[in-house]
Each structure stands twice: as structure tokens, then as C-alpha cells.
Amino acid sequence: MLERRERERALEGRRLDVTLPGAHAPTGRLHPITRVERDVVEFFSSLGFPVEEGPEVEFEKYNFDDLNMPPDHPARDEHDTFYVGGGRVLRTHTSPVQIRAMTGKTPPFRFIAPGRVYRHDLSPRHSPMFHQVEGFWVDDRVTFGDLKGLLYAFLSFLMGTEVELRFRSSFFPFTEP
Questions:
Q1: What does the pLDDT look like over 70-110, one tens digit per residue?
Q2: Torsion of CA 7, 13, 18, 21, to 10 degrees
């Protein structure tokens, strides 16, 4: 009984205000892909490239037809593309954003199109969803040298140090019909 009274007296002096805000708990960090995408947007935005976005569930017209991919093109195969019905697909690239961004406009234009894309490619080395960023720059005063310089500056920014680049001509037959 004596112990109980002593405990009660000790507790009487201490009052806890439960309405006070608690201590700040540390939160998590951004995912590395989110950080890289934000860095890409920051770099190109600083050079006047706006960000264009488009739907992830896309009409075949924008995903294939308007990009000159005929009905028998290999990229349209069900083994490569997720068809969702009603003439729609999960976009296989961010290129449909180009079509939408240019519709009703005349050059010059420039923009970037970051986003998630989907390919029906299931293997240990590939994910059915990945991130892509396309840059688009059309102007009668833009040269190949401008594009190379932009790539050099972008990669140096992204890596945090100057990079050495070597450009080689090549041919990718899988990109042709």
C-alpha cells in the first residue's frame, strides 16, 4: 500500500500533454529511378525543353500507325505488345507523345517525353515495364553538332563529371520493317 501511494505521488508531478506534436520520424528516400528522372527533367528544363506527357494506355493509331508502323510490323506482334482492347495498347515507347505534342502545331519545337512504357517481354533480363525518356528537337537551325553537344552536356551533368563520348555510325535492322 505504501509503495502504491509513493508511485501515485511521483506520477502526480508528471503530466503528459498528448496534444503536443511528436518527434519527427525520418522518412524514406526517393527511388533511384525517380531521382534520375527528376535529374533528366531538371537538365532539359534548364535548357528550355518543356516536358510533354501522354497516356500510358494508348490508341494503336498513335503508338503505331502515325509512326509509320504498318499492321504487319513485328513490333505490333502480341508477343511484343500488351493489347488491352478497343484499339488500345499499353504504350510500347514514349514516341506517341511526339505525335500528340506536334498535332496542330508547326516547327520549331523541342521537348522531352519521360514516362513508363510496356513490352510483352518476359525474361530474367527484361521487365515488362520500364522507363524511357525521348528528346525531340525540330528547328531549321539545329545541326547534328548541336545534338552531339547536347548529349555530351547531358551525360556530363548526369554523371557529375565530364565524360568522353565516341559516336559511331551503325545500322539496327530490328528497327526497320
A1: 999 888 888 889 999 999 999 999 999 999 999 988 999 99
A2: -130
CA–CA separation, 45 and 91 (whole Å): 24
Beta bridge partners of 116: 131
Angle between helices 32-46 and 144-159 (to 10 degrees): 140
pLDDT tens for 130-139 read: 999 999 999 9
DSSP character at residue 88: E
Matching CATH number, 29-166, of 3.40.1190.20, 3.30.930.10, 3.40.50.300, 3.40.640.10 = 3.30.930.10
